[in-house]
Amino acid sequence: MADTEDPRVTRSREAVLAAARELLREEGPAAVTHQRVAARAEVGRATVYRHWSRPEQLLTDAMAGVRMPFFLDPTTPVRPWLKAQLRVLADELALPDVLAVTTSLLHGAVWNPEITERRDRLAAMIGGRLRASLEMAVRTGELRAAVDPGDAAALLIGPLLYRGALEPGPVPDALLDRLLDAAGTWADR
Amino acid sequence: MADTEDPRVTRSREAVLAAARELLREEGPAAVTHQRVAARAEVGRATVYRHWSRPEQLLTDAMAGVRMPFFLDPTTPVRPWLKAQLRVLADELALPDVLAVTTSLLHGAVWNPEITERRDRLAAMIGGRLRASLEMAVRTGELRAAVDPGDAAALLIGPLLYRGALEPGPVPDALLDRLLDAAGTWADR
């Protein structure tokens, strides 16, 4: 329990968590390894292991309340930017730790209201960012007749989740293009 | 442990599991409730609860080794058949018990080799059936230039999984049509 814990232990735990959050925010889930977190927090790897024996657990705790880089700050033309974002996400979901955190979140959300809230926040964040990028594409004339904004995340990210969680293996460029084509009618194509 | 268990308890457990598998095979995961399984097995509900306190656990055990009805035996024209199948799957994934079993399978597969195998069998089964239905559509001239067969399941089912697991809510018909459109070029459209 925290209230009987040695204050030095509490401090080292917080330093590790802060470092994990920084790495998560700056580089995404793949960067949250014991080694890199220990280096960033300026503690030994044993200290990180003492608090979180598996990287997945550290990543789960770090994810709570951190803004993640996915689909943030779109640039024009939107389509190549979006394709690059989908590629990054597909590659992240291929990493066992990231997949473990993701599936743990999805499973926990079925039973635990606190995790449900965290999942809902994550889904709202990703959905909101995707919508914003598609709106930018519509505004600049790059995209006509886009998918219903409420369906954008399911359509674009669902297949990457399926590949990561059910059919491990590479996500070919052709699939990403097919998803982008399905997201609306693009100009110049 | 099974080898110290009263044989009558073992028999009632097997009767319940057999009933659960029948219901799963005949009607899909939604049918595997304590009440219906007890009625089918001709035991009291308390007997079902004694072995499986949550329907999710019973469903998980019943799923092991059962052929499920999804995407089985396509009929022509394939597109409306496929759309109806996707609708059923979307509705199943909206049920908390089904979602719990699914996410439990996906999460467990990250760590537990036995569950990984079960997940891989499920993914191969679904992927194989979907491919067979698209091949039938191509053979009958209904579909031209279909998606890479290896990507069909991710493309068609991924968005339903995303909606079920991350963005609970109805899957509109328009989204199903968009997915089917993305699966290839259909004749007569």
TrEMBL record, chains A, B:
Any Pfam family matching the protein: TetR_N
InterPro entries: Homeodomain-like_sf (IPR009057), HTH-type_TetR-like_transc_reg (IPR050109), HTH_TetR (IPR001647), Tet_transcr_reg_TetR-rel_C_sf (IPR036271), TetR_C (IPR011075)
Entry superkingdom: Bacteria
Signal peptide: none
Domain HTH tetR-type per the UniProt entry, residue ranges: 10-70
Residue range(s) of DNA binding per entry: 33-52
Protein name (record): TetR/AcrR family transcriptional regulator
